Structure formats: structure tokens, C-alpha cells
Amino acid sequence: MTEPIATPTEEELVVLDALQRDLPLVERPFAAAAEALGTSEAEVLAVLRRALQAGWLVRVGPVFRPGRLGLSTLAAMAVPVPRLEEVAALVSSYDEVNHNYQRAHPTWNLWFVVTAADEPRLLAVLADIARRSALEVLDLRMVREHHIDLAFPLVEREPSGLPRPRGSGPTPSVPRGGGVTAPQGGSLVADKRVVAALQDGIPLVERPFAELARRLEIDEAEPLTTTRALLACGDVRRFGAVLAHRRLGFTHNAMCVFAVEGAAADVAGERLAELPFVTLCYQRRAAPPRWPYTLYCMIHGRHEHEVRAQAEQAARVAGLADAPREVLISTRCFKQRGAHYRPPPGRAAARARAIDGVDDIDRRLIELLQEGIPVEDHPYAAVARAVGVDEHEVVKRVGALLARRVLTRFGPLYDVERFGGHFTLVAMQVPPARFDDVVALINDYPEVAHNYAREHAFNVWFVLATETPARAQQVLRDIEAKTGLATLDLPRERTFHLGLKLAM
Amino acid sequence: MKTAQHSLDDTDRRLIAATQEGLPLDVDPWGALARRLGLERAQVLARMRALHVSGVIRRIAAVPNHYRVGVTANGMTVWDVDDARVDELGLAVGALDFVSHCYRRPRRPGVWRYNLFAMVHGATRDEALEKAERIAALLGNAARDHQILFSTRILKKTGFRLAGG
Predict the structure, then answer these.
(1) ipTM for the complex shown
(2) How far apart are alpha carbons A206 and A43 in whole angstroms?
(3) Alpha carbons B140 and A122: distance in angstroms, whole number
(4) Which of A89, A196, A263, B154: CA 20 to 30 A from B124?
(5) What predicted TM-score, i.e. pTM, was given to this entire model?
(6) Which chain B residues touch A499 with a CB distance below 8 Å?
(7) Where are the alpha helices (DSSP H) in A388-468?
(8) Which stretches within A239-380 are classed as H helix?
(9) Does residue B122 form part of some domain?
(10) B79: domain CATH number?
């Protein structure tokens, strides 16, 4: 562990700290930030360039929410000590590996994060590493996120650890815009080239977004519009300076893992997420019997004794003092950079089909509106800005899309289970000769929300949304009595994914 | 899956009844709802916010007509997956970027053997079938059997309604 050679001045720290969040998304972001800091655009750019050179700054750009850039997983390997260098180099050589750490643990000593465009590629990378190293690779998928921040407060630091920056609470553990069924893989379908370019950070020049547009040979407004939209829909957690915490003196990080299941894990995760020194907290799949741990939190600090003390405190606060647990201190960083995702070739063209009377603005609008509008004073303001029209035009276009039945509906999507209601999928085998009559009878029930004809012996499939489970049973008995046909009641037992979004 | 429940009062129910067909098409939908229901605009906004925060409203969003936007092959893939592995594999299937919905549902012995449901879409049936193949590859021998049920017609698509609302 080497101490940082050069250390930033107090003034530089103030600039870097401020730019971690809330970099204004405008044509000249550094000028706007400078104004807020009472300095000049030239000075802000000079600090950033120095910081990049000194290695304190990784990039100025987006921090994507997990899952936005494709799939990722945490992997662990038990590497014989004499082979550590060789295996670590092999792991780091994959473009899909963005973090790779040695951690102090008697067995599982190499930990890395793999991000790939899709599941087959992710599995292929893991399998390849296992094959080439002839070692086992544990695949520890994230199951639930409690807290993800990663902005390190550099100023007004308390001796006890890392206070949260003013005005930022813990990340709610339920993704924005939904309950337990909020989309995991859902995301804005932005221009993949812009997304890929943003990942490397914006250029440190006066007009960084225009410069990106020039490099990509696209419309000048496109990178800025896309960035705003990504932030507005939650795909990007924050946009600003991403700092190399190790180079800034936060040389120790501890990964604390607990073996705790079910609701207890949820409660403990919520509590851990509240702690000011916890920067990441999530649940991951265990790999029993070798790795029984399910709840993870990361603690960053300047000294080993500091992070160890905080790990103990975390265990107590979370009510996990008696749970099996381990604290894995990182001892060496082999690789650290933002998650990367390169667009797979040849996919973009697939969606570029023409729909009568639907122009590019409509297309963007439908994409954004599938994500939902905020329940705010001006609910259409962000969408309007993102597509470059005013709010009246947004509403007018929505009306036209509804009238032409390009949209079937625009409004609140209710989760009836949240108010004691019941959702179920029902299938029936309806003789073709009676098809229309039976369907009309079914559709007459206001509780039938969706109904589809499908090619199968079970040829009618409808969703029943009722205020009570008893009412659902009553409707089904009723339909059976009136039609003389059996119903197949298939309530969902578990939701793995609910996206509801269509790439346009 | 049991979720925390939120009890609705009369005002909530009136708001739900007034929006279940859709949000009023107005730049200021809260004001429009307030006028329609004889409520204060601030009250409407506060109520809608509370319904959103509690998850009663999942989101306020557009639902495209798959057929009209060129996605004409909509297949419900159903899989008979080893019960011991269905939860783990369901998460992996749900994480595929092309799967729009993924649920575990009960088997009905003698009538219905499939316990994992995943929706796939495409401009053509081949496109949807190719996606089903990718799910099959992921599930490997944990899936004993599967089918893909293409929808041939939308018979109804209204979203949730309060009975009598």
C-alpha cells in the first residue's frame, strides 16, 4: 500500500468534492459549476486536468445504475498464493472485468466484477476464466440492492469516517417508480453509441457534449439530451467526477458479508444502508456450502483499524452480531474502472421500422413515457426537455397516439396487490364455435384487465385484477357456471421481472 | 408474493376511478382532476404522490400497442423447470434484456405442468423463437419441457378497474 505521492490542495479538494454530484447538464457544464463555486471555468478545467493526470480523478461522467449496462456479477476465486499474480493478470485482461481486488481471506482471495451485454456473454467470461485458470469461479449475483452511492465526501470530513454529503439521504432500497415489482432490467433505450462514449467520461473542454457529438458525427444536441434523459429516468445515478478513492487516501476498503436469509436480510440491509460509512449495500446469491453469505456492505476508510471498527459497528447496528460473518479487507487493487459496455453490433437496425404517422419525436416520446412521468408539479417538463418540444406539444402528441391506437393507454398503472387486491392469470379451453360468445362474456367483467387469444389448446388467456382474492374466486366460479367450461387459475407466486417496455 | 398494503379512503377511490381510463390529457393533469372531482389541486397532487410512493400506482406511463408499433410476434414461453432450481433460474431469465415479464406460477397436476413464464417479443415469429432458444440454452437440462404460446389477437386491454368504478 503506497501513500499517495501528490496530494490535492484544499482548493482542489473543494472543486473535486463539489463536482462529484450535480454537475449541471448544460452546454458548458464547467462554466456553470465554476459560477456556483465562485471560480472560473478555466480554473475548474485546470483542476480537473491536474486531477486526471495525478490519478485522483478517474473520469467525469455518468455512474450507471446496476443492470443498466447489461448484466453484472461479483465473482470470487480461491487462488493458490504463488499463482496470484498470474491469475489476477488473466482476470484483469478481460474487457468485461472492471474491478479486480485481492482480499485478505484464507480461501477466497481474488474478487472481481464482471459486466457483459447479456447472460450468455457473462457466463462465457466466467467459464473462460475458470477453464484457463483451472480454478473454480463463484458467481455471486445481486439479488437486491439496498444502497449504492460511491460519491466520496472529501471535505468537512469527520474523524469517525465518511459522512454523507449534505442533503443526500440513503438511496431507497426499492428502485424508483415502483414497488416490489419495479423493473430491474428496464431502461431507457438510448443511442448505444452515445452511452458507450459517455462511459469513458466527457472530454475536459469547455463544450464537452458538443465535442462528443463531433467525435460521433451526430447531432450536436444529442449527447446532452441523452444524458439528461438517462438521469431523469434513473438509469444514471449521478453525473459528475468519479474519483479514485485509493489515490485520495481512502486506501482501505472492507467488504463485510453476513449469512442471513429472507425478511431478516431485508431488515438488516435497510439498517446497514442507513449507516453513513456504508457506501454500497446489497444482497447476493450465496454459493453454499463454500460461500454461505448473502448480505454485503462496503466500507471505505483511511486505516485498517478504522474500517474494522466500523464493520463491528455495522454488525451491531444491523442486529447481526450473532450472524455468521466475515470482513474481507482489500489488500491490493489489480484493476479498477467504470463498468464498460460495448454495443453488440447489428442490433440497432432491427427496430428502425416505419410506423404510419409516427415520427422520431413520437418514438422518443413513447420510449420515455413507458418509463413513466414523475408525480410533480410539472409532470411533463422533463420529458418535454428530453425530446426538445414544449409540454403542450407532448400532451397533444400523446392524445394523437392514443387516438390512432399506437398507445393503448396512458395513465397510472395500478398495483392492486398493494391495496389488498389480487392479480391472477387465467387460461381456458374455449371451443372455436363458441369463441366470440365466451370471450364477450369474460370481457364483460370489469375485473378482466387483459385478454389474449393464443395458439394453444388453452386458447384464451386473461388477467383478472380484483379488489379481494374472494372476488377473484367468485368471478371464476361465475364464468365456469355460465360457460360450463373449466378455468385454469395460475396466480403468480414470484415475480422475477416486470418490464413492460418496448424498445422503439 | 405478499406486499405491504395500503388502505384507500373515499378520496383515493375517487381518484382511481377518475384515472383508470387514463390520465386527463392536460399539461396540468392534477388541476384537471381537481376540477373534475371538486378537490384542491394541491390535495390531488399530494394524494397521487402518496399513492405512487406507497406503490399503489406503479408508475404513470404509456402502454404501447405492440401490434401497432411493429412488434407483432408476442410469445408467452412456459417452462417446466426443476422446482429446486426455478427461483435461481427465474432470476436469470428475468434478467435477460429481451424478457419483458417473468413469473413463477403454480403447476396444476394433470392439466398444466409449466411453472416458469417469460414473455418474449419480436417483429417476426422467428425473432421471438430465437429468443426462446436463448432461454432454453440458459435453462439447460433444468427445463424438462417448454412451449411458446403466440398471441393471435388482443381481446381486451384496459388495465385495472375498480368494480363498479
Answers:
(1) 0.78
(2) 11
(3) 16
(4) A196
(5) 0.44
(6) 99-101
(7) 391-403, 435-443
(8) 262-274, 304-317, 360-371
(9) yes
(10) 3.30.70.3460
